[in-house]
Specification:
single chain; alpha+beta; Uridine Diphospho-n-acetylenolpyruvylglucosamine Reductase, domain 3; Alpha-Beta Plaits; 3 domains; eight-stranded antiparallel β-sheet; five-stranded antiparallel β-sheet; 15 helices; 21% strand; globular
Length: 465
Amino acid sequence: MSIATKTAPSRLMEICGTPNVMNDPAELAAYAVDGKTPTVVVKPGTTGEVTDVVRFAAAEKLALIAMGARTKLGMGLPPRQYDVAVDMTRMDRVVACDPGDLTVSVEAGIPLNKLGATLAEHRQFLPLSVPYVKQATVGGTVATGVDMPQRQLYGTARDYLLGVEYVTGEGVQAKSGGRVVKNVSGYDLHKLMIGAMGTLGIMTRLNFRTFTLPAATQALVARFASAEAALKMRHRIAQSALTPQTLDILSPRVAELFVGEAAARYASGAWPTDLLSTKEWALTTGFSGNEGVLARYASELARIASEAGSTGMKVLAGRELAAAFSYKRELIPIALASSPATTIVKMSVLPMRMREAIEGAERAAAVNGLAWAAMARGVGVIYVALLPREKNEDARASVAKATEQILTACGTLEGNATIPWCPTEWKGAVKVWGLDRPEFPLMKKLKNVFDAPGVLSPGRFIGGL
């Protein structure tokens, strides 16, 4: 342990106050990232404190990892160095909320639920219904780049993140974008923070465009004998005048996951009976509006489902809809808890190549003797959960082969694939960030610009950045 590491707690106490610094081994264990535990945890309460913490770390060559509720620390590569955990949860205020302009400005550590409650008072919302939504923070959600079911209509955070204030690796306060929808011209540098795992800066404040809560929402779930038939309905919806909020396709094994013990730990409410089948694929699509709009959507979607060969369908509303949505939203943590070594592959392809991508994943799982489940967003993003029965060397080898085959198949479809979640011990055997990317040299240059000292989450991003 270096002298700087030994003296870090006392210096950080000077910056943030003694109650906001922890170095007890039992407390530090909760902040471990891929088996590596920090020497100290600091909880800054202002942007100034974050700046001073980073400047101290840069001067002493200490590596920092910023985090919120710690729900997604398993994503990315293991850190190359990890000395200080920067817990942002003290910075949890709504800084400004302008319902008339449909904008909100918040600190990075605010929980999604707290922000949602504030916006709901003005009949507005942010479509950030990500996995672990009950605990997740806004900053962590943006930093990890996890998407959500409402992506079908609203896009991702990239589409409504107006601006970010952040601290660079040199301890410089910076900002990009602004607080209103119509901003000055320039580069949207703040969007580089989305999905960068905190390797380019520690976000302190984020500005969003908000949306008006719909009058009412319903959903239609249609079952099909094959993925091809479900995708047929997806394509027909895309060619119609309908603009649903959500559109996801679920493989048969998802039905098993949703009635398992793990589902009850993460989802809310009781799973609606007779909704999915363990032998059929399902397409779920949500829509909103007044009574007339809802009736039209239900009628049109039922017609399209029937023409695509649906074997059964059901319209959901009220509590049933809320419960079903929470299960779908929390599919990733449910899958992670359903196998001792769940490995999740995320594929992104053009919507018209989804059938080939799903077939490629199915072949890879079958050849390597792995159970699997899949959820395909209507926009072309597909999550495939490989579910080994055991966590041993044979399972590791099978998963490594299967993921390599899936990544290669996705590449031939001109898509991109990564492995957001897998056991820590297996990260050396699988390509967490996918195949080599031609833009990697540019990424290295950006990392050097934003974090010249190399103290921000070193090693966790693509290529060990």
